[in-house]
């Protein structure tokens, strides 16, 4: 793990060499120990006013006399001189539903004239937030002020010297209700801001209503700032004094140094050892277990064991934390050894006796099931005629997709190839702007979503036809562009068709990722035959040569990640419509990739795929395996294997351990960089039949859902390492190392976890797969969409009194999660039912109002229900035939699972967390009624179990809060029967506990507490 830690904690600081400024971002998202997800924008002012973060919130200079000059301390800096009347404005969308803020920057005052403003942010002079470094009309010392209607908050500080660099930080900490000012890393003053909310200062809905000035007051009467400025940052998290000190000191270091791993900030409550931890306070014993494994494979130890409770308590199975070795040394020989676990909040130490056998591992399962096509399953209203959450979310996305302009999604492709844009074409924003190195990623998601929408809208001919036209237009344009690559611009002209011989861009002496209007290369005739992307091929080549992730033109941003999205979208179009051009584009680019990658040594591939973000390749292994399956051309399977992440999959080049041997090799790594790789491993197993690929996928799934999962089904959100997009540094330590201040549970990571889950279920029909699928689908994916638009979440915050932040309501500016949201919400029906390959069995996995047409059996099954507002469903069979009907008995159905067929009760042995098989020769009109009484249950954090989420059946209930909280919401529940402490309406899924209202998380749009500090009595 030493390599991954070096990657995760490469220092991103600035130096102060007189002749050269070390301003380069390193190869990850950790800037001065703070995860990039906490960073809204960063303006270095090293010659321009561009945003150095990945959010592309570029500034604009006002007045023509703005200039940049060389500075002995920081190199090139912004200079606002006397008489220039120059300043910088930044986009009004910078502040979008933020909870807290931190503003950091360096200032070199050239004048002590009073009432100059370092920055002034707000709506107008009556509602704004500013720092006056030279004081106000009345005072000459540093002044910070927040003014809203009816309220004014101030802090002051020392008198700042002129002609000297000073580091200023202002922190608005809403949960702590404080306004803090720091000078040169030291706190100078704190003021309480009891009633402040940031939506009083900024208009989150209409960006143009916000005035955001750097170097000028909002008031025209105040003087312009006369100063030099450097490295102005805006964070969405309240920085701690330690973090601020690190920013300050790192800026003054003479050279970049290796940084020690950042420790958790520790701002959540710490509990004494003796704090009662839920049911564990009644736990008196837990049985030891025996498990078996084969030589080389670490044993799979169960996440829960049956416990013995006192005082008549019938507690749940006990969560056990087992040690997670980083190698498989303990199982390299046949024999026996003992593993000792711990149970949080107790002194109990259950033991697992492991027998290591010198036999071959059992062969992985064969593919047994297949999914129905999207047009074979339709969503329905509930049994009362109301739209379900599934239909609500689908309609938000389908209707908005229908009015999108495909030319916006083609804009950067035409731009890369130097082609004229159609009239009225407008580029997308966010991660698809001119300078963005990830541009084109949204187009891949869009292709998939349009294909899925086309396949799913048979219920509306106009929509269906519209999506067909969009789909064909997108493919036709991309095909025409791809045909240009590697071919002469004019007949008889020069060109480079060999993908391995791509030269430098015209007039350049190296490959670079400069995509600016002035710097982008558009010499497509030199790019090699078959190339297609929204940027030239340089980023792919730079990755091979060792480039890291970052904002400079010598750095890159996940080129193969973008390519995977594009190719996956093209193959989705091909598979739903048979569009041969989509297949030809995919084959052309597949050939381009194969030509380059087949020449790379193993050491280079290992380096590439373990390079943070830069080497993120999405599911290139998956899409290349799909391409092989479609074409039967072996080079695509060969290149798919070259995307093996050897370090994670196998431990090393010798395949000594890794996930293939059940060794956890992904702790502390970026979650969604790796989950699609695992999905790809399962796809590789499908085509190569190599057992290791299956074991990699299955072992990863088991570990993530047992050791890294939050209650909504998400699996990332680390405070250690300091990156909300990473797995925690040690498994089963979510409380110690999770709950990042920058958010948790990246939505696209859960999208990919669901994709992996359904894929595994097709091989092995373990109910735990679909239990997890239900959890993630209801409590994260459905919960990730805004109330009235298709805006959706990137991270879903789960700390006390949090609020979801939704983005991209008009589908005009995409992050990664905005992209996967298009896909999730246009295929919500895809895993409700599966059928066996031999068409002798049907699996009912989810209880959603819907109809499935089983064409091979000439049978239609209609599911009528108001689940989860009711605890029962009815399946009506139209047609006849003999087949197994397998219905899921959810793990939470501990109060029974009851079956009636045609009104008569059927005695069944239904075990929670399994499938129940109903077998007979079914007749037309047969009705199967299933009832699974809901009950309340708690899902605790494994390493601090008094912190838990409350569920009712499959539905996560969130406490409805009115303000952010510094500590967890406390509730008290009856230990023997939780329902005695809970009042409410089960049909509305609205309840009250200790006077606090609880609603389903998927119906929660205001402040919420998903985790609670629970006392049992």
Nearest-angstrom radius of gyration? Answer: 29 Å
Percent in strands: 15-25%
Q: How far apart, in Å, are the first and last alpha carbons?
A: 44 Å
* Distinct helical segment count: 19
Number of strands: 49
Mean pLDDT: 93
Task: Catalogue the unreliable spans.
Answer: 1-28, 255-264
Shape label:
globular
The percent range for helix content is 10-25%
Kindly name the structural category. alpha+beta
The biggest sheet, with number of strands, parallel, antiparallel or mixed sense and barrel status, is: 9 strands, mixed
Quick tags:
eight-stranded antiparallel sheet, 49 strands, 1017 residues, disordered N terminus, nine-stranded mixed sheet, 24% helix, globular, single chain, alpha+beta
Kindly summarize this structure in a few lines.
The chain has 1017 residues and is α+β, with helices and mostly antiparallel strands.
Note the topology.
Layout: H1 2-8, E1 30-31, E2 34-35, E3 39-43, E4 60-62, E5 67-71, E6 75-80, E7 87-89, E8 101-109, E9 119-124, E10 127-132, E11 143-148, E12 151-156, E13 165-173, E14 178-183, E15 186-192, E16 211-214, E17 227-235, H2 241-252, E18 283-286, E19 289-294, E20 304-305, E21 307-309, E22 318-319, E23 335-340, E24 351-357, E25 369-371, E26 377-379, H3 389-402, H4 406-416, E27 429-430, H5 441-456, H6 461-484, H7 538-544, H8 559-577, H9 580-597, H10 602-609, H11 620-631, H12 634-641, H13 646-650, H14 671-688, H15 691-707, H16 734-737, H17 747-761, H18 767-781, E28 792-793, E29 806-807, E30 813-814, H19 816-824, E31 833-836, E32 841-844, E33 850-854, E34 859-865, E35 872-878, E36 881-889, E37 898-901, E38 904-906, E39 914-922, E40 927-931, E41 936-941, E42 944-952, E43 955-960, E44 969-973, E45 983-985, E46 990-993, E47 996-1000, E48 1008-1009, E49 1012-1016
Parallel strand pairs: 19-24, 27-30, 32-36, 44-49
Antiparallel strand pairs: 1-2, 3-17, 4-7, 5-6, 6-17, 7-16, 8-13, 8-17, 9-10, 9-16, 10-11, 11-12, 13-14, 14-15, 18-21, 20-22, 23-24, 25-31, 26-33, 28-29, 31-32, 33-34, 34-35, 35-40, 36-39, 37-38, 37-40, 41-42, 42-43, 42-49, 43-47, 43-48, 45-46, 46-47
């Amino acid at each position: 793990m030493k390599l991954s830690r070096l990657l995760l904690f490469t220092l991103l600081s600035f130096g102060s060499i007189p002749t050269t400024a070390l301003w380069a971002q390193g190869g990850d998202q950790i800037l001065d120990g703070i995860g990039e997800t906490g960073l809204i924008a960063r303006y270095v002012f090293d010659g321009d006013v561009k945003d150095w973060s990945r959010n592309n919130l570029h500034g604009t200079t006002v007045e023509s006399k703005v200039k940049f000059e060389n500075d002995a301390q920081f190199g090139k800096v912004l200079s606002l001189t006397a008489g220039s009347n120059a300043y910088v404005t930044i986009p009004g969308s910078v502040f979008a539903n933020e909870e807290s803020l931190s503003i950091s920057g360096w200032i070199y005052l050239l004048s002590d004239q009073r009432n100059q403003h370092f920055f002034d942010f707000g709506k107008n002079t009556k509602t704004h937030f500013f720092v006056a470094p030279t004081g106000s009309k009345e005072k000459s010392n540093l002044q910070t002020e927040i003014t809203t209607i009816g309220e004014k908050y101030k802090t002051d500080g020392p008198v700042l010297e002129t002609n000297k660099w000073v580091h200023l930080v202002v922190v608005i900490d809403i949960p702590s209700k404080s306004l803090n000012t720091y000078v040169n890393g030291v706190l100078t003053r704190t003021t309480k801001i009891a009633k402040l909310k940031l939506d009083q200062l900024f208009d989150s809905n209409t960006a143009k209503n916000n005035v955001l000035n750097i170097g000028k007051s909002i008031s025209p009467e105040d003087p312009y700032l006369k100063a030099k400025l450097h490295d102005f940052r805006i964070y969405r998290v309240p920085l701690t004094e330690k973090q601020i000190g690190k920013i300050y000191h790192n800026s003054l270091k003479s050279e970049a140094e290796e940084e020690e791993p950042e420790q958790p900030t520790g701002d959540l409550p710490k509990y004494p050892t003796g704090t009662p931890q839920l049911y564990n306070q009644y736990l008196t014993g837990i049985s030891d277990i025996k498990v078996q494994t084969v030589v080389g494979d670490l044993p799979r130890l169960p996440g829960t064991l049956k416990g013995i409770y006192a005082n008549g308590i019938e507690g749940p199975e006990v969560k056990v934390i087992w040690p997670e070795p980083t190698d498989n040394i303990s199982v390299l020989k046949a024999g026996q050894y003992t593993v000792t676990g711990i149970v949080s909040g107790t002194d109990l130490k259950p033991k697992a006796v492991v027998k290591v056998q010198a036999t071959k591992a059992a062969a992985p399962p064969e593919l047994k099931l297949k999914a129905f096509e999207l047009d074979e399953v339709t969503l329905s209203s509930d049994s009362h005629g109301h739209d379900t959450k599934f239909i609500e979310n689908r309609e938000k996305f389908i209707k908005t997709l229908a009015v999108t302009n495909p030319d916006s999604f083609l804009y950067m492709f035409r731009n890369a190839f130097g082609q004229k844009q159609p009239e009225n074409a407008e580029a997308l924003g966010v991660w698809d702007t001119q300078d963005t190195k990830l541009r084109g990623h949204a187009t891949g998601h869009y292709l998939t979503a349009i294909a899925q929408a086309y396949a799913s809208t048979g219920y509306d001919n106009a929509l269906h036809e519209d999506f067909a036209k969009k789909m064909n237009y997108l493919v036709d344009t991309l095909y025409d562009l791809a045909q240009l690559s590697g071919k002469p611009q004019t007949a008889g002209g020069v060109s480079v068709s060999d993908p391995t011989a791509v030269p430098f861009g015209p007039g350049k002496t190296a490959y670079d990722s400069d995509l600016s209007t002035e710097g982008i290369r558009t010499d497509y005739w030199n790019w090699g035959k078959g190339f297609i992307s929204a940027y030239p091929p340089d980023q792919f080549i730079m990755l091979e040569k060792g480039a890291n992730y970052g904002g400079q033109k010598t750095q890159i941003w996940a080129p193969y990640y973008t390519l995977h999205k594009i190719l996956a979208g093209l193959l989705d179009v091909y598979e739903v419509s048979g569009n041969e051009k989509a297949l030809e584009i995919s084959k052309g680019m597949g050939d381009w990739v194969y030509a380059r990658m087949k020449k790379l040594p193993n050491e280079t591939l290992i380096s590439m795929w373990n390079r943070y973000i830069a080497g993120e390749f999405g599911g290139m292994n998956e899409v290349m395996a799909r391409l092989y399956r479609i074409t039967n051309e072996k080079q695509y399977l060969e290149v798919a294997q070259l995307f093996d992440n050897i370090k994670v999959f196998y431990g090393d080049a010798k395949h000594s351990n890794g996930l293939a041997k059940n060794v956890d090799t992904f702790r502390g790594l970026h979650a969604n960089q790796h989950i699609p790789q695992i999905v790809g491993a399962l796809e590789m197993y499908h085509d190569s039949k190599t057992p290791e690929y299956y074991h990699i996928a299955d072992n990863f799934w088991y570990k993530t859902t047992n050791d890294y999962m939050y209650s909504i089904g998400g699996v990332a959100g680390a405070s250690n390492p300091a990156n909300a997009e990473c797995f925690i540094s040690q498994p089963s330590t979510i409380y110690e190392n999770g709950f990042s201040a920058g958010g948790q549970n990246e939505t696209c990571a859960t999208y990919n976890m669901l994709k992996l889950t359904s894929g595994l279920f097709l091989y092995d029909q373990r109910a735990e797969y679909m239990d997890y699928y239900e959890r993630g689908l209801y409590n994260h994916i459905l919960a990730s969409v805004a109330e009235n638009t298709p805006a959706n979440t990137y991270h879903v915050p789960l700390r006390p009194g949090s609020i979801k932040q939704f983005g991209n309501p008009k589908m005009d500016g995409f992050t990664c999660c905005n992209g996967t949201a298009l896909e999730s919400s246009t295929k919500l029906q895809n895993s409700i039912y599966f059928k066996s390959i031999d068409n002798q069995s049907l699996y009912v996995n989810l209880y959603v109002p819907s109809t499935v047409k089983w064409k091979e059996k000439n049978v239609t099954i209609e599911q009528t229900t108001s689940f989860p507002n009711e605890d029962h469903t009815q399946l009506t069979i139209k047609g006849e035939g003999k087949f197994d009907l397998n219905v899921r008995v959810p793990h939470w159905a501990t109060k029974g699972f009851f079956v009636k067929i045609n009104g008569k009760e059927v005695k069944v042995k239904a075990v929670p967390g399994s499938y129940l098989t109903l077998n007979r020769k079914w007749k037309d009109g047969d009705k199967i009624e299933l009832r699974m009484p809901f009950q309340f249950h708690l899902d605790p954090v494994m390493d601090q179990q008094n912190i838990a989420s409350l569920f009712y059946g499959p539905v996560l209930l969130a406490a409805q809060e009115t303000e952010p909280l510094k500590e967890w919401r406390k509730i008290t529940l009856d230990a023997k029967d939780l329902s005695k402490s809970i009042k409410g309406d089960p049909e509305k899924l609205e309840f009250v506990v200790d006077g606090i209202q609880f609603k389903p998380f998927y119906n929660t749009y205001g402040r919420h507490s998903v985790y609670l500090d629970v006392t049992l009595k």
